[in-house]
Structures are given as structure tokens and as C-alpha cells.
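Trying the structure run again after the queue cleared.
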Amino acid sequence: FSTLDNWKPLFFPKIKSHSTYTIERDGDKPVLRAESHASASAIVYKAVFDVYDYPRVKWRWKVKNIYARADARSKEGDDYPIRVYIMFEYDPEKAGAFERIKYGFAKALYGEYPPHSSLSYVWSSKDDPETFIVSPYTDKAMMVLLEKGPTQAGTWVDEKIDILADYQKAFKSKPPARARIAIMNDSDNTGESSVSYLEYIEVDK
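Done. C-alpha cells:
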């Protein structure tokens, strides 16, 4: 991470306090620093990619701390010191009539279509026995708990995921082709604070 020029902020209408994303140095390399204080917002990569051409994503991340009150299964505890989202684009040409109405209303309200669905790869604050957990907000979003608890806090951890395999496990279907990557550190539900880092993120064949 040497620049945020290719990323755009994503804010949520009902959340007034936003997380911050900055570039700083960790030794001899630039990294993304994500920080939240009872806040939430994300950054989204501007370019779209085809998950069938690039089905794998790899990155290196680190958290400074986790949350005491976090709970992946409740809205009140739905906070993570870092998340990497794969957000799949909604295509009205492939949607049914009811879905087109629902997404059309959302577009009129927010200015753009919400994602068709998403995989959210998270650093969970608790050592949950499950790896795949449905978001407490919508069944269109699946949480994938890659790291759990404080054991690795303060340490750089490498991750590599297979989008197609994970989507099949999560939704029992094939994903839409077009997707974007987003990153978020949020603490608006727990009211806590955290700092996390991302050294790089890459799509791969």
C-alpha cells in the first residue's frame, strides 16, 4: 500500500462517525492503517474484477487489538478490527421482478445499487467454533472468520482465499462474475476502538 488514489470511501447513511484510513510506514515498507473509535466506514477499490478470471485473493494483515464486546451473531456485537470484503455486483438483467423492485428502491434511496451479495473475511474477536456465519443484518452477506481471538494480535498474518469455493460453501450457488474489494475497520456497535494494518492485497489466478 503506497497510495489511496485507487480507493474511494464508503459511508453509511445512519453512521455519523467514520473510521480513518491512512498510509504510514512499518519499517521500510508503506502499509495501510485502519482506525476506528465507535465508528464505521470503508474504502472500496475503484476497479471491478472478474472472479472467474481471478478467483483467488491474498493479503497480509495485522491487528493491534480486538474487541471485548464483539459478537459475530448479533447486531450489537457486529464489529471487527478489520474486514476484507468481496462485494458482488447486482445485475438487473439477471434479477426477478421482485428483486428488481427492491434494488431499484435502494438505488433511488442511496444513489447506486447495493451489492448482490458479499463475502466478508474478518479477524474475529472471539474464538468462534464456526468459520462461516451469516451476517446478523442480511442473509446476502456471509462472514468468513479467518482469524479468531487475540493469539495473533500484533503479528503480521498472511491469508489466501478462493472466492469460488468459499461462495459455494456460503451460498450453495455460483457467484456473479463482477466484484469489488473493500476494506473496513468498524466499532460503531460495540463503541470500542481498534487499529489494524494491511500491507498489501492482490487478486490472483
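The radius of gyration is 16 Å. Worth checking whether this holds up in the mutant runs.
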